[in-house]
Amino acid sequence: MLIGEYKGKLTEKNRIAIPKKFRVKLEDKIYITRGYERCLIVLDENRWNNLIKNIEIKPFLNRSVRDTKRFILGGAEEINWDSQGRFVIPESLTTYAEIEKEVIFVGISDWLEVWDNQKWETKLADLTESAGEIAERLADNN
Questions:
Q1: What is the predicted pLDDT for the residue at 1?
Q2: Count of domains in the chain?
Q3: Which residue, 51, 50, 69, is CA-closest to 60?
Q4: The model's pTM
């Protein structure tokens, strides 16, 4: 399970290292793609295949399914990383996520989110403010 928050820094050439706590739980082949709220999502091959299966079981005729495929798959890249977990984030993805220099890796059970530090601070403040409401909405859906 991927959990926790860890800081990282993007180099001038968009190179970054996945924190060791996460690297040891990921397989060798990883994928990176657009996430929601302007973050990036990192998954290893097994988790990536599970995500694809969940998308593929939905009917192609549904517009939301097609748009999800465009958003998630259209922006995806297979990534090669070195023994220290370093890899280059494609420029199109750093532009999408508006990543400047400092990033936060957030473990969300089955995937990692990569956030620009300022964007994560804003998102976390919003989550902190509305945590009670979110819990109530989840409880109402059961």
A1: 93
A2: 1
A3: 69
A4: 0.91
